[in-house]
């Protein structure tokens, strides 16, 4: 979606919010399209119950329209003190869920250390306490939670305790990175629009129950598809059905094996998950009126993809 396709402005149907009636000159409402200094005020339109705003910032809704598809897009505008100084974004707390080697977890974690992702991996959750991802987390001093409880083991949290624990860590976003268990309804409901998964195919193809690991790539090659790549999507109570947020594309080569294709897709996964994590932490997700989430470009705030 290119810059020229978007027009901005307050919708006439937008209800007047108390904030718009604010007489206090200390506040200014950002109604303009995002530009350099006010990018930092953008936020996904649905407030999560556990997200709090500082007393000097309040959310209101902005609507704008895509000229091509005529869809309305909503986002939150946050009032900020009229000081001319950009609001500092709070560092987001991330929980990463893994079941295996955790290469996606590592690349996200490294990006938080480098500052490419304005967040902190506060906790790692795994159903396999000795997997590569969990070992690496312990080496890095990241707390590890086992979930769910394994058979014949006393270790592991219940669904309720997991929710309580993630809340205690003040988790903003949950990133599934090769976590093979279905996410329980309790967790989906406790963290609305805050849980993401990466899947190694271009959903909605080659997804759903039974499509995991190397099986996905075998199916892609057998289908004759010429392109594959990772999808990052919101998580609901089912396998791979939540709203698609981002995709990356790689070619499927004539002589590919499932393993060579998997390696090419995995490289793309590392890149894509870091980009998405960065966008989440910088509050650059907006929602088109039909419920499709879009990522606002950092370099060009008038560009969405
Ligand atoms: C990735 O291919 C991801 O798409 C899938 O599980 C794999 C995890 O790999 N959900 P890693 O553990 O991050 O290396």
UniProtKB/TrEMBL annotation:
Which Gene Ontology molecular-function terms are recorded?
phosphoribosylglycinamide formyltransferase activity
Task: Write the record's keywords in alphabetical order, separated by commas.
Answer: Chloroplast, Plastid, Purine biosynthesis, Transferase, Transit peptide
Any single GO BP term? 'de novo' IMP biosynthetic process
Determine the domain of life of the protein's source.
Eukaryota
Q: Which InterPro entries match?
A: Formyl_transf_N, Formyl_transf_N_sf, GART, GART_AS
Describe which pathway this protein belongs to, using the record's wording: Purine metabolism; IMP biosynthesis via de novo pathway; N(2)-formyl-N(1)-(5-phospho-D-ribosyl)glycinamide from N(1)-(5-phospho-D-ribosyl)glycinamide (10-formyl THF route): step 1/1
Reactions catalysed, semicolon-separated, are: N(1)-(5-phospho-beta-D-ribosyl)glycinamide + (6R)-10-formyltetrahydrofolate = N(2)-formyl-N(1)-(5-phospho-beta-D-ribosyl)glycinamide + (6S)-5,6,7,8-tetrahydrofolate + H(+)
| Record-level GO cellular component terms | chloroplast; cytoplasm
Broadest EC class assigned to this enzyme: transferase
Q: Where is it chiefly localized?
A: plastid
Q: Does the keyword Plastid apply?
A: yes
| Location of the Formyl transferase N-terminal domain | 92-276
| PANTHER family for the chain | PHOSPHORIBOSYLGLYCINAMIDE FORMYLTRANSFERASE
Name by which UniProt lists this protein = Phosphoribosylglycinamide formyltransferase, chloroplastic
């Amino acid at each position: 979606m290119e810059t020229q396709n978007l027009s901005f402005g307050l919708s006439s149907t937008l209800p007047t919010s108390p904030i718009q009636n604010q007489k206090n000159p200390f506040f200014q409402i950002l109604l303009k399209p995002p530009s350099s200094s006010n990018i930092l005020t953008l936020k996904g339109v649905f407030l999560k119950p556990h997200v709090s705003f500082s007393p000097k910032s309040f959310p209101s809704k902005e609507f704008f329209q895509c000229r091509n598809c005529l869809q309305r897009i909503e986002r939150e505008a946050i009032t900020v003190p009229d000081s001319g100084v950009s609001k500092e974004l709070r560092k987001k707390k991330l929980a990463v869920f893994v079941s295996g080697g955790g290469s996606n977890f590592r690349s996200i974690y490294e990006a938080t250390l480098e500052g490419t992702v304005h967040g902190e991996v506060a906790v790692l959750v795994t159903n396999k306490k000795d997997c590569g991802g969990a070992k690496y987390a312990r080496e890095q001093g990241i707390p590890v939670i086992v979930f769910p409880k394994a058979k014949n083991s006393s270790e592991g949290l219940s669904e309720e305790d997991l929710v309580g624990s993630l809340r205690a860590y003040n988790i903003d976003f949950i990133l599934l990175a090769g976590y093979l268990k279905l996410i329980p309804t309790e967790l989906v409901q406790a963290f609305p629009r805050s849980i993401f998964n990466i899947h190694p195919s271009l959903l909605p193809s080659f997804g759903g129950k039974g499509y995991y690991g190397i099986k996905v790539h075998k199916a892609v090659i057998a289908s004759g598809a010429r392109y594959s790549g990772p999808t990052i999507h919101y998580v609901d109570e089912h396998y791979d059905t939540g709203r698609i947020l981002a995709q990356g594309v790689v070619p499927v080569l004539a002589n590919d094996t499932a393993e060579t294709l998997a390696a090419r897709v995995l490289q793309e996964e590392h890149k894509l998950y870091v980009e998405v994590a960065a966008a989440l932490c910088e509050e650059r997700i907006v929602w088109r009126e039909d419920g499709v989430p879009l990522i606002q470009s950092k370099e060009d705030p008038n560009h969405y993809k």
